[in-house]
Every structure is written in C-alpha cells, then in structure tokens.
Amino acid sequence: MYLKTAIIFSALSFLFFGYACLTSPFMVLEFKRYGLARFRELNGYLQMAGGLSLLLGLYYQPLLIIGSSGLSVLMFFGLLVRFRLKDGFLKSLPAFFYMLLNVFILWACQK
C-alpha cells in the first residue's frame, strides 16, 4: 500500500515537474542560473519518461526499476548542482527528498 502510494506520488510529481521544465518561463531562468540551459529540455523529457516508467512499472516491474533508478540518479545530480550553487537547505530539500523517495521505491520493489 505504502509502496504503491509512493510510486504514484513520485510518478505524478515527475510528470508535472517535467512538463513544467519544458513550458515554464521560471524554469528557463532557473536552468540559466544553473549554467545548464542547454539541458533543460532533456531534463524535462527525462523527468516525464521517469514518471511514466514508474506508472507503467506498477504493471511491469522492470520499468519500475529503470524509472526509479533513473530518477534517483537525476535527483542526485540535481542535488550536486544545488550544492555547487550553494543554494542552501530549503532549495536543496526537494531534490534530496525525491532522490530518497526513488531509492526507497527501487529498494522496496526488489524485496
């Protein structure tokens, strides 16, 4: 029950974040601030692919493993970017939370 809730929460979050990454003027500015403007669209597509993979992974476990692994790595690098920019705890917290959430999903689905 908790695992399914975590999967759906993460999946919907990344579908939303990925779409926002592709369409939001704020995200355009953020990726410029990160010094990663050329990777904004790729990041958005990867987030949406990861979210979709988590949802489909509810029915086909290899996709759950791929999606949670990929999103964990993506959030790890997001956390590194936040540290590099010295963004502080509150701005770094979402990347850390979603990294841990997807590591939990990966761990729990292999039990």
Question: What's a quick, concise take on this entry?
Answer:
This protein has about 110 residues and is mainly α.
Which short descriptors sum up this protein?
transmembrane helix, membrane, transmembrane, mainly alpha, 111 residues
Query: Structural class of the helices, strands and pairings?
Result: mainly alpha
Largest beta-sheet characterization: none
State the shape: globular
Overall pLDDT metric: 96
Structural notes for this entry:
The chain is an all-alpha fold. The chain has one domain (2-109). It is 86% helix and 0% strand. The chain is built from 5 helices and no strands. It has helices at 2-23, 25-34, 40-57, 61-84, 89-109. α1 packs across α5 (89-109). It is globular, with a radius of gyration of 14 Å.
Tell me the layout of helices and strands:
Elements: H1 2-23, H2 25-34, H3 40-57, H4 61-84, H5 89-109
Helix pairs in contact: 1-3, 1-5, 3-4, 4-5
